[in-house]
Amino acid sequence: MKRSIAIAVLLLALTPVASQAQGYPDYGRPSYGVHGDQDEARAAVRGGRQVPLSQVIARIAARTPGRQLNTTMGDSSGRPAYFVQWQTPDGRVMIFIVDAESGQILSREGG
Question: Signal peptide location in the record (predicted)?
Fold first, then answer.
């Protein structure tokens, strides 16, 4: 009996606590992250206040061969921006920061 209790206590001690689970890191950049904000981004494109993501992707592809891995929205210097994660044919991964209002590529990180 004592052995069973000792094993049960040991198993409880080794069980991970669900409350310690953490979300995805944001790497210090703001993100819309909720569906309501995605709706705001769509409305901004429809209203002509932001360029469509497809134009941003085409502009990056013309400059740097590769493919889009992921895109998030945020702000850069107080202006709305696309953060486009991009992979080149040789496997390098970089992030393009693009002004969402003008479509201008502001900077590139990584790669």
Answer: 1-21
